[in-house]
Amino acid sequence: MLLYESLSLTATTYPDRTAIHFRSNVITYLELHKSVNRCANAFREFGVNNDVTVAVLLGNCPQFTVTYYGITAIGGLCVPANPLLKPAELQYIWENCDAQYVVTMAALLPSVQATIQLIGRPIQIILIDEPPTEMPDIWRFDNVLASASDAAPDLHGIQDTDPAVCIYTSGTTGFPKGALLSHKNLTANCQQISRALKFSVDDNFLCVLPLFHSFAGTVCQNAPINMGASFTIVEQFHPARILETVVETGVTIFSGVPTMYGALLQFPVEGQELSSVRLCVSGGAPMPSAVLQAFEAKFNTIIIEGDGPTECGPATSVNPIDGVRKIGSVGLPIPGVEIKIFDDNNVEVATDELGEIVVRGENVMIGYLKLPQETEEAFAGGWYHTGDIGKIDSDGYVYILDRKKDMLLVGGFNVYPRELEELIYTHPSVLEATVIGMPDPLRGDEVTAVIVLKPGQTATELDIIHFCRKNLANFKVPRRVIFRASLPKGGTGKIVKRLLKKELEMEATSNL
Question: What sign does the CA torsion over 92, 98, 104, 109 have?
């Protein structure tokens, strides 16, 4: 099934049902469907088809959903990106995917214009709001839609196996990789996670997680659209506003990352504010058991932990909503998804033995954009290799114990040390540098840079942090910078991060 067909079927079945709550506005499925049709028809008139890419750089708003469904309805490739990224980061993504249009907002216009200047070729900007001054070369989203027909677009020639969305994940080479997800990948994952967690047409999903992220895109947007449920879009996470919104709109499904649950837990409220919530879903980073248990006790609800990489749509496993929830586990494979543990020779290991977690199912991506070798490696043996080290117990529950890939999880976002290390090495005072993740009870990993300075050079922790912040999104910037006379190395001269991390953990313990 195409993404658009999923929406169209829902709009036909439930035209007057609320699709989106946003601020004080309510958008019905009939209204959403017509807006998506206008978006699709307008972009088709511009020449968008299966050879054209539209970048989306937006915060959480209904226009994100309209663009996402409108572009994919006519075979275009939708490429959402994190609005926190800096121009140099966006440059790589938009060059790699050959973006020809970008839908964005006035607050992000300076970053967008700087990115286009770095690319050195035109990209048509479409703003969802008013530009700061009159700019005739920039189109208004409302004007684009107003001039188009709200009739259903022609779907001829578009297959559900065609790429619909490309989401960039950080790469071990320092450059992100574009995970190509087809219509079938995304709609299948909606149905899989909905069955696993027993989502209902009467549910109202809180969407405060960023829509550019695969977690929110599938669980908070596509899944409710697929079944005709509602979702409540919130632009940013603020505990007071979240609790007010839950009460105002009657949220029943709350999706978040552990940092959000920790913040709500610490917020001074009685605990009745989430009385309408029947289920909380947590992903993006391991949930501390103390936070989970305290949150459930205070708010009288349950938190279900799950997992899955962007490349898998992203949901692959969750603890069962009915049955045993094993704290520390990411649960059972969701319906239609197979998970196994392989050794380095792609041979399945025995129960409770460690190995790499591999996945197979209709939700697994087509491959990486323009990266045939990386795609082939990722699908060795016909299974997608997640890069996570884990085990499966005798009951079939999956545990993630380590990462084969050199990746950190920071508040639900992937951070690859290689990208940060390459930047730090360009600082004139740095001789050697490595980046590791130190345990953070809520954020998952605390990005920590350990640096050896050149003889006679000086630099402070703030110097390095400010240097990184100029070039990278804030969530990638180290929260700690440690200076050392030397770094531990193996026989080949390679920095041994495992030993360094152990040393730092011992130092932290001795200072308690």
Answer: positive
350 burial class (0-12, 13-18, 19+ CB within 10 angstroms)?
exposed
Beta-bridged to residue 332, according to DSSP, are 318
> Is the predicted pLDDT of residue 189 greater than 50, yes or no?
yes
**C-beta neighbour count of 173 within 10 angstroms:** 13
Which residues make beta-bridge pairs with 482?
450
Q: Which fold has domain 8-181?
A: Rossmann fold (3.40.50)
- Nearest-5° angle of CA 195, CA 317, CA 196? 15
What does 56-110 look like in DSSP terms, one character per residue?
E---SSHHHHHHHHHHHHTTPEEEE--TT--HHHHHHHHHHTTEEEEEE-GGGHH
Query: Averaged over 233-254, what is the pLDDT?
Result: 96
For CA atoms 129, 134, 139, 144, the dihedral sign is: positive
Question: Residue 53: which H helix or E strand, with range?
Answer: strand 53-56
Percentage of the chain beyond pLDDT 90 is 75
Residue 494 in tokens = 């390679």
The answer, yes or no, to whether residue 170 has pLDDT greater than 80, is no
Question: Whole-model pTM?
Answer: 0.85
DSSP 189-238: HHHHHHHHHT--TT-EEEE-S-TTSHHIIIIIIIHHHHHT-EEEE-SS--
Residue from 388, 361, 309 nearest 192 by CA = 361
Cα(444)–Cα(259) distance, rounded to whole angstroms? 9
The DSSP string of 302-322 is -EEEEE--GGGSS--EE--SS
pLDDT at 489 over 80: no
Instruction: Indicate the domain borders of the chain.
Output: 8-181, 303-403, 408-510
Asked whether the CA dihedral 114, 109, 219, 473 is positive or negative, the reply is positive
Longest dimension (CA), the chain: 72
Report d(CA 435, CA 340) in Å as an integer: 30
Residues 6 or more apart whose Cβ sits within 8 Å of residue 51? none
- Strand-strand pairing, 480-483 and 444-453: parallel
Tokens of 151: 């009739």
In this predicted structure, what is the pLDDT of residue 493? Answer: 55
| 303-403 has CATH 2.30.38.10 classification | yes
The answer on pLDDT for 247 being more than 90 is yes
Counting beta carbons within 10 angstroms of the beta carbon of residue 57, is it exposed (0 to 12), middle (13 to 18) or buried (19 or more)? buried
Return the pLDDT at 492: 46
- Domain 408-510 maps to which CATH number in 2.60.40.10, 1.10.3720.10, 3.40.50.300, 3.30.300.30? 3.30.300.30
Query: Of the candidates 114, 102, 9, which has an alpha carbon nearest to the alpha carbon of residue 58?
Result: 102
> For the segment 44-66, what is each residue's pLDDT rounded down to a tens digit?
999 888 889 999 999 999 999 99
Six-digit token pair at 394? 């005798």
